[in-house]
């Protein structure tokens, strides 16, 4: 029986790349999305090219009940949830003095509370299985901070701390939890940056290039594989050497 990977925010960017990577390695894929069903259906189609089963599930990660129902639906469809990749995330950048409370909390709700919700919802399933892998998408900004991203930095730092706590709590049931901290990855979010901004970013990256979504996807697959069976509670930077 094929293993099952559930990826949140999988309709585009890094989430899409992760879904396609796991599908290419023979995993059945549960694609979570919110809002753009057409994009989710396209990812489903691309995954199925690899001869696996893929299903889409719309759901807001900030709503625990919705995530609990989604986990039950995935379990009913596939029979197990072997890997959870928490990829859903948003930014609402603004200098601290201009940032309102709503913008701060919106980012915390999706990036941190959303990660908590999905982990809590899947944990009972994985504990009953006595196996599972949880991979949380953090960010190098959660390690070093950044001007204009107090909300994002706080949310991703929280994801890192949450990952370490979850790793300790669930290890006795043979469940591993790790985080990936991407640097600047070439996606639609970075496409909108000006050439001057991109040039300044590259000056701080020793490898002098942005990463591709596939670079993150490859690390996610490694962390889910038996090759990483003795790795838990860790944060893996995928940043071209930006943070050392």
Describe this structure in words.
The chain has a single domain, classed as NAD(P)-binding Rossmann-like Domain (Rossmann fold, 3-Layer(aba) Sandwich). With about 240 residues, the chain is an alpha/beta fold. The termini are far apart. It has helices spanning about 15-25, 35-50, 65-80, 100-130, 140-145, 150-170, 190, 195-205, 215-225; strands at about 5, 30-35, 55-60, 85, 130-135, 175-180, 235-240. The protein contains nine helices and seven strands, in the order E-H-E-H-E-H-E-H-E-H-H-E-H-H-H-E. The mean pLDDT is about 95. Helix 4 runs parallel beside helix 6 (about 150-170).
Name the CATH superfamily assignment.
NAD(P)-binding Rossmann-like Domain
CATH architecture: 3-Layer(aba) Sandwich
Give the fraction of residues assigned to helices: 40-55%
Give the biggest beta sheet.
7 strands, parallel
How far is the first residue's CA from the last residue's CA?
Answer: 40 Å
Instruction: Please identify the top-level CATH class.
Output: Alpha Beta
What is the fold named in CATH at topology level? Rossmann fold
**Global mean pLDDT:** 96
> Domains counted in the coordinates: how many?
1
Q: Report the radius of gyration as a whole number of Å.
A: 17 Å
Can you tell me the residue ranges where pLDDT is under 50 for at least 5 consecutive residues? none
What is the count of helical runs? 9
Please provide the count of β strands: 7
Q: Which sequence of SSEs, written as H and E, runs from N to C?
A: EHEHEHEHEHHEHHHE
Structural class: alpha/beta
**Strand arrangement, major sheet:** 3-2-1-4-5-6-7
> Rough shape?
globular
């Amino acid at each position: 029986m094929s293993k099952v990977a559930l990826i949140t925010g999988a309709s585009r960017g890094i989430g899409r790349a992760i879904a396609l990577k796991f599908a290419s390695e023979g995993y059945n894929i549960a694609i979570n999305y919110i809002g753009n069903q057409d994009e989710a259906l396209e990812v489903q189609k691309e995954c199925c090219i690899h001869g696996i089963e893929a299903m889409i599930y719309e759901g807001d990660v900030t709503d625990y009940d919705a995530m609990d129902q989604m986990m039950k639906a995935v379990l009913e469809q596939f029979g197990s949830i072997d890997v959870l990749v928490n990829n859903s995330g948003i930014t609402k950048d603004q200098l601290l003095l201009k940032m309102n409370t709503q913008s701060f909390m919106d980012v915390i709700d999706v990036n941190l509370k959303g990660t908590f919700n999905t982990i809590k919802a899947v944990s009972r399933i994985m504990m009953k299985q006595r196996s599972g892998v949880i991979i949380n998408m953090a960010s190098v900004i959660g390690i070093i901070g950044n001007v204009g991203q107090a909300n994002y930095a706080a949310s991703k730092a929280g994801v890192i701390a949450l990952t370490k706590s979850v790793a300790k709590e669930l290890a006795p049931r043979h469940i591993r939890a790790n985080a990936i901290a991407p640097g600047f990855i070439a996606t639609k979010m970075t496409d909108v940056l000006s050439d001057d901004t991109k040039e300044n970013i590259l000056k701080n990256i020793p490898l002098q290039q942005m990463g591709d979504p596939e670079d993150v996807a490859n690390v996610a697959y490694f962390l889910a594989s038996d090759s990483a069976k003795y790795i838990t509670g860790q944060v893996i930077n995928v940043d071209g050497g930006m943070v050392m």
